[in-house]
């Protein structure tokens, strides 16, 4: 697989100065909200993306980010973004023609547990 860090200058990402991003925000039973923007894969870290999404959707609580990819059978699957390495993989393998992200605002919602 080799070095996938866009900030260390892989040939694939050096050719792409801009990655178009489509984001869907999910917040419980509320209607999903969509936003579109572009990022520079050479300068955008996971922390920068997290802050950008937090500001774009005016989020005050923690949230998770995942990106749309495909499994071995070609089926769509969302993979969680947790680090710069994950973001680099998403840009390299799942951003053509754009990177599809999902922001989940209630990923840690407590479930009611009944004790009998």
Major β-sheet strand ordering: 2-1-5-3-4
Low-confidence blocks of residues: 1-14
Question: In percent terms, what proportion of residues is strand?
Answer: 25-35%
Counted by DSSP, the helix tally is: 3
Protein architecture, described:
- There is one protein chain.
- The chain has helices at residues 11-15, 46-56, 84-94, and strands spanning 19-26, 33-39, 64-70, 76-81, 99-104.
- The longest helix is centred in the middle third of the chain and has 11 residues, at 46-56.
- The model is unreliable at 1-14 (pLDDT under 50).
- It has a 5-stranded mixed beta sheet with strand order 2-1-5-3-4.
- β1 (19-26) and β2 (33-39) form a beta hairpin.
- The protein is built from 3 helices and 5 strands.
- 23% of the residues lie in helices and 29% in strands.
- By secondary structure, the chain is an alpha+beta fold.
List the helices and strands and how they pair.
Blueprint: H1 11-15, E1 19-26, E2 33-39, H2 46-56, E3 64-70, E4 76-81, H3 84-94, E5 99-104
Parallel strand pairs: 1-5
Antiparallel strand pairs: 1-2, 3-4, 3-5
Please describe the structure with a list of short key phrases separated by commas or semicolons.
116 residues; five-stranded mixed β-sheet; alpha+beta
Concise account of the structure shown:
The protein has helices at 11-15, 46-56, 84-94; strands at 19-26, 33-39, 64-70, 76-81, 99-104. With 116 residues, it is an alpha+beta fold. A five-stranded mixed sheet has the order 2-1-5-3-4.
